[in-house]
Design a protein that fits this description.
Rossmann fold, 6-stranded parallel sheet, 17% strand, 12 helices, 12 strands, 2 domains, globular, alpha/beta
C-alpha cells in the first residue's frame, strides 16, 4: 500500500498526484516535458502542469521541480519581486504540508546567475528536495541527498509524425536557444575557414541577447555559405531543418545534459560535440559513428574531419531512453520520495 504524502494528503487509495513546475504545452515547450507528463500518466499517476494557483491552493502529493530559477525570472523589477514572493509562498506551503519535492538536475548550475534573493530561495528549494533525479551517471547532487538515475528520454516517437528532409552533403546545423555557453561564436569563426567542398552552415534558434543576434547576422552577411533562422521554430519545421543536415554541431562550452543532442540522434543525424566523460559514455551507448568527439575547443580541422566520416549503417541505439520505462521509473521515484 502506498504511504500518505504530507500532512494534508488524501486517502492512500487515491491516485498519486504530481504537480510539475512547468506550464502546459505551448509552441515553445520542450517536448521533453510533454513526453514526461504523458509517460507518467500512462504509468498510473495524475499529472498537473504548473500554475501558481495550483501550487499555492491546489491538491498534489509530489512537486516535481525542473529549472526552478526560471520560475522567478521575469522582466521588470516588480514582476521579479512578485515571482520571488510567490516562490517563497510555495516553498512555505510544501514545507508546512511536508509535501515531498522531487527535483530533476538538468544542469550542474543555472545557465545565468541570479540575484542573492533568488539564490537564497534556490537553496531553500535544494534543502527541501527529498529526491534528486539525475540524467547521467556523472551528475552530482548535494551531499547526503537521495539520488536516482533516470536517463534523458528520446524524441523518436514525438518527431515521427513530421516529414523529414533528405540530408544535403556538407550541410551543418546548430539549433536551439542561442546562449553564450553554447559556443555559437566559436562555431562561426571555425566554419569561416572550412575547406570541405559544398560545406554550408545553418543556425536555427532564438538568440538570448541582442549581441548574439548581431554576431550571427554579421556572419551570414560575410559568408554566403552561412544562413540562419533566428527565432523559435515549430517542431515540424525543426524536423525538416535538422534532417536536411549531414551533421549537427553542438560546440557547448559546458556539455552536461543536452536535449538537443538526443533530438539530433532521435532524428538519426550524427552529432559533433566536445570530448567529455559524458559524451564518451553516450557515444558508447548509441553505437559507433553517431557521437563524434573533438578535443579541447572546436576548430576548423575538427569540422572538416567530421564531414569526411560516412553516415553509420545502423540507427543509433536509444533503447535505454524509451519513455514508457522512464515514466514507470519516475512514478517509482515519486512514491519513494513520499516514504
Amino acid at each position: 500500500m502506498r504511504p500518505r504524502f504530507g500532512k494534508d494528503r488524501q486517502s492512500t487509495d487515491d491516485a498519486l498526484r504530481v504537480l510539475l513546475s512547468v506550464r502546459g504545452p505551448s509552441k515553445t515547450t520542450n517536448p521533453y516535458v510533454v513526453q514526461l507528463a504523458d509517460s507518467v500518466r500512462e504509468s498510473g499517476a495524475e499529472v498537473q502542469y504548473f500554475s501558481w494557483r495550483t501550487a499555492l491552493l491546489g491538491h498534489y502529493d509530489v512537486l516535481h521541480v525542473h529549472w526552478p530559477e526560471v520560475m522567478m525570472r521575469r522582466d521588470g523589477v516588480l514582476a521579479r519581486a512578485a515571482a520571488r514572493v510567490r516562490f517563497a509562498m510555495m516553498m512555505a506551503r510544501v514545507q508546512f504540508t511536508d509535501t515531498p519535492i522531487v527535483r530533476t538536475a538538468h544542469n550542474v548550475r543555472a545557465h545565468e546567475t541570479g540575484a542573492r534573493t533568488e539564490a537564497a530561495l534556490l537553496r531553500w528549494c535544494d534543502r527541501r528536495t527529498r529526491t534528486w533525479i539525475v540524467l547521467n551517471e556523472l551528475s552530482t547532487v548535494p551531499p547526503g541527498a537521495r539520488r536516482i538515475l533516470i536517463p534523458h528520454g528520446d524524441y523518436t516517437d514525438w518527431f515521427s509524425r513530421y516529414p523529414k528532409s533528405e540530408p544535403v552533403a556538407g550541410q551543418l546545423i546548430s539549433f536551439g536557444l542561442i546562449r553564450p555557453y553554447k559556443g555559437t561564436e566559436l562555431l562561426l569563426e571555425s566554419f569561416a575557414n572550412v575547406t570541405t567542398a559544398g560545406a554550408s552552415l545553418r543556425i536555427v534558434g532564438k538568440p538570448s541577447t541582442d549581441e548574439l543576434r548581431s554576431v550571427v547576422e554579421s556572419a551570414t552577411r560575410a559568408d554566403g555559405r552561412i544562413s540562419a533562422v533566428l527565432d523559435y521554430v515549430e517542431d515540424s519545421a525543426l524536423a525538416l531543418e535538422i534532417t536536411a543536415a549531414q551533421l549537427v554541431v553542438l560546440p557547448y562550452q559546458d556539455m552536461h545534459n543536452s536535449g538537443a543532442l538526443l533530438l539530433a540522434l532521435s532524428l538519426e543525424r550524427p552529432v559533433l560535440v566536445p570530448d567529455t566523460a559524458i559524451t564518451r559514455r553516450l557515444s558508447d551507448e548509441v553505437g559507433p559513428g553517431w557521437v563524434r568527439l573533438y578535443p579541447g575547443a572546436l576548430t576548423t580541422e575538427s569540422i572538416d574531419a567530421a564531414l569526411t566520416v560516412p553516415a553509420p549503417a545502423e540507427s543509433p541505439d536509444l533503447s535505454a531512453r524509451e519513455w514508457p520505462k522512464l515514466g514507470l521509473a519516475h512514478v517509482d521515484a515519486y512514491r519513494d520520495a513520499g516514504r
